[in-house]
TrEMBL record:
This is glutathione transferase. InterPro entries: Glutathione-S-Trfase_C-like (IPR010987), Glutathione_S-Trfase (IPR040079), Glutathione_S-Trfase_N (IPR004045), GST_C (IPR004046), GST_superfamily (IPR050213). Its EC number is 2.5.1.18. It holds the Pfam family GST_C_3. The keyword Thylakoid does not apply. Residues 81-204 form the GST C-terminal domain. Keywords: Transferase. Residues 2-79 form the GST N-terminal domain. It is an enzyme of class 2 (transferase). The keyword Acetylation does not apply.
Length: 204
């Protein structure tokens, strides 16, 4: 087994679903968390000046979804064939579209504008994307988005649903029962549950 080192800020952020994957497959990795005060002086040492960075026997890989997909392939969490592998990518791209459409809210500082943006996200963007994830889960023959066992994208979707519950509305998933059930199933996988119970307490 290669040696793995995952470097990120001391946050859950966009690295947490990668940590989920390592814990789910029970593969050791160095969970390297940088102190934010050190970051400005270290930023230029990283290939794209951002984190996360995965190192596999010293070989570097950036971009959180690329890392997720790569580990999915390595650990056989990437669907049963090329089509299922592409479906993982499709859900990944749709998830990124949803997050992009919510992005302005997270940077808005004006409280009135924040309320307007939040309402718009809840009435437009969330139904547009979560309605479709929910529909596909209704049609799925398993509890997962792709195939019959967890795939790398399931960890990403579940993690970002938790993020949206925390940042936008803790109850929004009740409108999407299958998606809510899906997220609970991922969070209740024994390896994920155990990691969540013991992980460092950090901000998002
Ligand atoms: N598309 C990249 C985004 C990476 C990114 O923006 N990382 C942020 C943290 S979430 C970062 O390291 N920001 C520090 C900086 O820009 O100085 C990915 O998915 O990995």
């Amino acid at each position: 087994m290669p040696s793995y080192k995952l470097t990120y800020h001391n946050l859950m952020g966009i690295a947490e679903p990668i940590r989920f994957i390592f814990h789910y497959v029970n593969v050791d990795f160095e969970d390297n968390r940088l102190d934010h005060t050190d970051w400005p002086s270290q930023k230029d040492n990283y290939p794209w000046g951002v984190l996360p960075l995965l190192e596999e026997d010293g070989r570097q890989l950036s971009q959180s979804f690329t890392i997720g997909r790569y580990l999915g392939k390595k650990f056989k969490l990437n669907g049963a064939d090329d089509y299922e592998s592409a479906k993982c990518d499709e859900y990944g791209d749709a998830l990124k579209d949803l997050l992009n459409e919510c992005r302005n809210l997270f940077f808005e500082t004006d409280e009135t504008k924040k309320t307007e943006l939040r309402e718009e996200i809840l009435s437009k963007q969330i139904p547009k994307y979560c309605g479709k994830f929910d529909r596909d889960l209704v049609n799925s023959e398993s509890k997962y988005l792709v195939g019959t066992t967890p795939a790398w994208i399931d960890f990403f979707v579940a993690h970002y649903l938790e993020f949206l519950e925390t940042k936008i509305d803790e109850k929004f998933l009740k409108n999407y029962p299958k998606l809510q059930f899906f997220k609970q199933n991922i969070y209740n996988l024994p390896q994920i549950k155990s990691w969540i119970e013991t992980r460092p307490v950090t901000p998002w």
